[in-house]
């Protein structure tokens, strides 16, 4: 089948396939097992516009709806991070007398509540109605919609132009970035800025963090790809700032051409990407080989645990874990259950692999021999919370950057 780049439309061949995948956040009950939806997860790298992307994606409405399972507030450190992010945007870019800021993918309002508390005019655009409803409990003005040109037109007619469009972990979820760029162009005033941060391609490749690839993440951006995409719409990249969040992210700042000065950070990051061969196809062939090795090592470790009669429980039913469990064919034979703090996931089963999801309280009733860390991006926060697990002789199984056991 001929597949085209979503950005520049040249033909792109997938460099690997992770096989058939379910909806990453499609937690389900046994009555729905036989109707479960699958698509083929196959990433490709466009050598023309240098954008890393998945070549088949389920319709957005299948992923983002009234039962969306991810709530940003499940990580205390992310809540702190969003406060610092919001303060930074305010200090750097909201310098007019009555600024207006729009966030897309505002989820449960963890970012925008920081503007709301300061009485700054704001609006969240969030298509998943359950998380949008949660945001309203924090006095966050939220509209339930997908961001596109039509949404931007409605915002401008109701509120006027915006000083900043901000986002975290959502730009990489939207297949039609041409519409997004047109919407942004319509929405922002002449000095307006776009600020967003997303998982960074350089970190994903360096750490073999293949679980960043799943249905919602249609793109994994590099500095070069972001610069290319938005340059078609009269926006230039004026700053990049690496972030430690979600296992390695990048914050991008864009402004209309020649309106603001360009920081040296952009050139520096572009050089880093060239030095690390992010523009070359061969990099992705090597990545595929490391994914295959990671899969082999993880299955080996879990099978050894099983043959030694050791009990393994998964820690956090992340979206990322759906790729790992299905790519490695890990099921309830190897993992007893996955513990997760999100009520909407509890009592259900993991997508595809059908491992039971139980509450955190269930885990605390009696630690297993081993915990498989699916939320490796929140390792610091989780290790602090679970220090007694290692003290009591437990061991962590981790797989990013390498498959390994952590013991006291
Ligand atoms: O881009 C996205 C990021 C921001 O969030 C989305 N596409 C979906 C989601 O990805 P994820 O599910 O991989 O996110 P996290 O933040 O790695 O995982 C959150 C899950 O982990 C939640 O279900 C809660 C759970 N968790 C837990 O059980 N105990 C998290 C922490 C920190 C904990 O201590
Ligand atoms: N910004 C939050 C949530 C990230 S999860 C955080 O970083 O924690 C991605 C979010 O983007 C979901 O809440 C999803 O419903 C939303 N989303 C998906 N497509 C969107 C679109 N086209 N416009 C706006 N939001 C979208």
TrEMBL record:
- Which parts of the sequence belong to the Methyltransferase putative zinc binding domain? 5-64
SUPFAM superfamilies documented for this protein: S-adenosyl-L-methionine-dependent methyltransferases
> What's the short name of a Pfam family annotated to this entry?
Methyltransf_23
Domain C-methyltransferase residue range list = 244-401
Task: State the PANTHER family in the record.
Answer: BLL5978 PROTEIN, TRANS-ACONITATE 2-METHYLTRANSFERASE-RELATED
Q: Tell me what this protein is called.
A: C-methyltransferase domain-containing protein
- Which species is this UniProt entry from? marine metagenome
The root-end lineage is: unclassified sequences, metagenomes, ecological metagenomes
């Amino acid at each position: 089948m001929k597949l085209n780049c979503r950005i520049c439309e040249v033909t792109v061949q997938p460099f690997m396939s992770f096989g058939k995948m379910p909806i990453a956040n499609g937690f389900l009950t046994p009555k729905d097992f036989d109707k479960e939806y699958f698509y083929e997860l196959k990433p490709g790298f466009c050598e023309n516009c240098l954008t890393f992307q998945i070549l088949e994606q389920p319709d957005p409405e299948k992923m983002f709806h009234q039962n969306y399972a991810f709530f940003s507030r499940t990580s205390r450190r992310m809540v702190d991070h969003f406060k610092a992010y919001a303060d930074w945007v305010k200090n750097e870019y909201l310098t007019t007398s009555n600024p207006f800021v729009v966030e897309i993918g505002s989820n449960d309002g963890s970012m925008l509540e920081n503007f709301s508390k300061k009485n700054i005019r704001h609006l969240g655009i969030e298509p998943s109605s359950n998380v949008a409803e949660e945001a309203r409990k924090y006095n966050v003005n939220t509209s339930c919609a997908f961001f596109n040109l039509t949404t931007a037109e409605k915002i401008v007619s109701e509120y006027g132009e915006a000083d900043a469009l901000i986002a975290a972990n959502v730009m990489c979820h939207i297949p039609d970035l041409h519409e997004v760029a047109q919407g942004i162009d319509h929405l922002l005033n002449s000095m307006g800025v776009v600020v967003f941060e997303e998982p960074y391609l350089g970190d994903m490749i360096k750490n073999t963090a293949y679980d960043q690839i799943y249905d919602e993440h249609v793109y994994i951006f590099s500095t070069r790809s972001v610069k290319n995409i938005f340059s078609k719409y009269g926006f230039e990249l004026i700053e990049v700032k690496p972030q430690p969040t979600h296992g390695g992210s990048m914050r991008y700042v864009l402004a209309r051409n020649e309106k603001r000065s360009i920081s040296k950070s952009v050139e520096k990051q572009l050089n880093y990407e060239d030095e690390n061969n992010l523009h070359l196809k061969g990099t992705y062939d090597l990545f595929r080989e490391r994914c295959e090795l990671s899969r082999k090592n993880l299955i080996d470790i879990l099978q050894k645990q099983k043959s030694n009669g050791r009990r393994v429980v998964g820690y956090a039913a992340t979206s990322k874990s759906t790729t790992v469990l299905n790519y490695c064919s890990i099921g309830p034979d190897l993992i007893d259950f996955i513990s997760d703090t999100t009520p909407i996931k509890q009592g259900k089963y993991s997508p595809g692999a059908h491992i039971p999801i139980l509450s955190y309280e269930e885990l605390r009733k009696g630690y297993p021999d081993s915990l498989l860390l699916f939320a490796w991006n929140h390792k610091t926060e989780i290790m602090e919370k679970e220090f007694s697990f290692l003290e009591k002789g437990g061991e962590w199984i981790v797989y990013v950057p390498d498959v390994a056991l952590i013991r006291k």
